[in-house]
Amino acid sequence: MSLFALFHSAARTKCDEFNLVLQSVNLESQVVYHENRYYLLIHEQLAEPAYRQLKRYVDENAPEDIIAKPLIPASKGFPAAVLYSIILLLFAMLQASSAFDIDWRQAGLADSWKMAGGEWWRAFTALTLHADVAHLAGNIGFGVLFGILVSQHIGAAAAWLTILLSGAVGNLINAYLHHSLHMSLGASTMVFAALGMLGVFALEHKSTYQQSKLRRSLPFLATLALLAFTGTAGERTDVLAHLSGFFSGSASGLIWVAFGRAQITGRKYQIIIIAVILLILAGAWTLALTLP
């Protein structure tokens, strides 16, 4: 059984105090010393009741919340991340081989003029296409990482559906903001949407041991730094698409927070939502390949 750190400090006094509080209500905890800090540890299954007990104690005896609310992952997210990778690889093969004598790139890329003319489905189809192997590999790698992290907050299927919709909205925003002909493709808009969601969840969750509001904002600031570092480099980088995806994802994260960041984890709901994702992609590509 894994252990969760509810609190840590350079001084042992506070850890011992909190440890006594938990012991008094028969919640087994321990204080350990590691790399110049003391940690108050408790079994993961007891983390929620322990947090509530210490929260009551802190509210009565201290001016600020200085303990960490445990995040119990809603989902590990690996199967859905594997499905995401398979879908991108499948379309990469279709695109590279011009399967069925179709120019997949031209049929599905995000063409701003055509999207303005009503071809909204390109906002989805463009997410499955890539310029080259490096582009594909980067979007699979970062997409899997961010997708799994978002899945831990709201469940895998809900996470990927939100990421997909946010990426499509990001593509629509990107097309609207370009007043001239602009073409783009790739899952990076979706990847940066996931990054934006993570920043909002980290800011809202406040799973830190720091008291200052600035320090509690550091996870969100870190996502902005990552956006600046990975989203604006490279000659062929579509910076506006990345920004559109990031802010679309951030808005989606705020919506989830407004609804209490509900976790959708039931197997039946997971299957239904994954089916909806596949139907959206299948429908978008059906329109792309059948309409003139």
Identify the quaternary structure here.
Answer: single chain
CATH superfamily of the largest domain: Rhomboid-like
CATH level 1 class label of the largest domain: Mainly Alpha
Which architecture of the largest domain does the CATH hierarchy give at level 2?
A: Up-down Bundle
Order of helices and strands: EHEEHHHEHHHHEHHHHH
Number of E-type strands: 5
Helical residue percent band: 55-70%
Short description:
The protein has 13 helices and 5 strands. With 292 residues, the chain is mainly alpha-helical.
What can you tell me about this protein's structure?
- The structure is a single chain.
- This protein has 292 residues and is mainly alpha-helical.
- The protein has two domains: 3-61, Alpha-Beta Plaits (2-Layer Sandwich); 78-290, Rhomboid-like (Rhomboid-like fold).
- It is built from 13 helices and five strands.
- The protein has helices spanning 12-24, 47-61, 78-97, 104-108, 112-116, 122-125, 133-154, 156-177, 188-205, 213-216, 218-231, 239-258, 267-290; strands at residues 3-9, 29-34, 37-43, 110-111, 183-184.
- A hairpin with a 2-residue loop joins strand 2 and strand 3 (37-43).
- Helix 7 runs parallel beside helix 9.
- Residues 207-212 have low confidence and may be disordered.
